[in-house]
TrEMBL record:
It holds the Pfam family TniB. Residues 306-331 are annotated as: Disordered. InterPro entries: P-loop_NTPase (IPR027417), TniB (IPR008868). Gene3D superfamilies: P-loop containing nucleotide triphosphate hydrolases. This is ATP-binding protein. The lineage of its organism: Bacteria, Pseudomonadati, Pseudomonadota, Alphaproteobacteria, Acetobacterales. Residues 309-323 have a biased composition (Basic and acidic residues).
């Protein structure tokens, strides 16, 4: 079973340990606060679905929220020095659904995450009943299903409906809220069936930052400045400088997961070459090394004089969206 806090074992200087609030993360935290509060004020269990492209930091957002609840940290909710929000430690069950997950094995995966000694024992109905018994025991305040897009198949809508029906059955137990994390293609289930309709509280989609949006770039540059200070390099690299921030944003498609990978690799290159900071040539080489796995990146933008002119030929993210449309619906 994978732990949502697995990164706690990462090295102290791992950039994944650094979390910077953004407008999107604060909005998600507010909705999660509402989700946890509504269970205390009604006899209904509700759910939320956090959807967005790969490597946008969706799981990291949940990890940070759980951490803040454990610490009672409501700093992101402070307005004029006061807030009515109260955060308590959350007893959570985290389950990352495996590729090719089907209705017949989602119950056994859930039982395994619950610590069941024989999660595959019994048919899927009996397994589902054991899941519900565990939920009714009051062990959990929140159940998190990650990678829910692995439930989406190219088969008939009936298969998708059954998966949604199983999830809605857990909500019917009214034991605790459920959170779903996945790619945007899971929206097919949410939008086309009656089982989850009306059972999910509204949740903003996570979207990548755009290099050509002034508001996005102000925020992205601020994140880069924080990460710059966390690189543990002898001198700052000036990553938050506007023109460089735009180029980095374009390179990673505005996705913080890819940004972490890029800066980590660039730091390693700088140390190997005994540089005191991440120079433009170092960053350009890092992008060149990483871009083989980034099919949406048409060119290396770092240090280009005509970057904006070239970038506007293909709007930010358009290549990624086109690539996604051309792929199958499975991860």
């Amino acid at each position: 079973m994978k732990d949502i806090f697995l990164d706690d074992d990462a090295p102290d200087e791992a950039l994944g340990r650094t979390f910077v609030d953004t407008e999107q993360t604060r909005a998600v935290f507010r909705r999660l606060d509402a989700l946890m509060e509504v269970r205390r004020t009604t006899n209904h269990a509700w759910g939320v679905a956090l959807l967005g492209p790969a490597r946008c930091g969706k799981t990291s957002i949940f990890r940070e929220y759980l951490t803040r609840c454990n610490e009672g940290n409501v700093q992101d909710r402070m307005e004029n020095g006061a807030t009515d929000a109260v955060r308590r430690p959350i007893r959570h069950l985290y389950l990352e659904l495996e590729p090719q997950t089907r209705l017949m094995n989602i119950a056994s995966q859930t039982l395994e995450a619950m610590g069941d000694p024989d999660p595959t024992f019994g048919d899927k109905g009996q397994q589902g009943n054991r899941v519900i018994e565990n939920l009714e025991s009051g062990l959990y305040d929140l159940v998190i299903f990650d990678e829910v897009h692995n439930l989406v198949d190219t088969d008939t809508l009936r298969v998708e409906q059954k998966a949604a029906q199983w999830l809605s059955r857990l909500l019917d137990v009214r034991a605790c809220p459920i959170a779903l994390i996945g790619y945007e293609r899971f929206a097919d289930i949410l939008e086309r069936n009656e089982f989850l309709e009306g059972r999910l509280l509204p949740m903003p989609r996570i979207v990548p930052h755009r290099w050509d949006d002034p508001g996005d770039m102000e925020e992205f540059a601020a994140v880069l400045s924080v990460l710059d200070s966390e690189l543990s390099m002898p001198t700052l690299s000036g990553l938050g400088e506007v023109s460089l921030a735009r180029q980095i944003c374009y390179a990673v498609g505005g996705r913080f997961g890819l940004l972490e990978k890029l800066l980590t690799h660039a730091r390693q290159l700088a140390r190997e070459r005994r540089h005191s900071c991440l120079t433009r040539p170092i960053l350009r080489q890092a992008v060149e090394d990483c871009r083989a796995g980034w099919k949406s990146l048409r060119f290396n933008p770092i240090g280009m004089d005509n970057f904006e002119e070239e970038a506007r030929k293909t709007p930010s993210g358009e290549a990624e969206r086109s690539s996604s449309r051309g792929r199958g619906r499975r991860k």
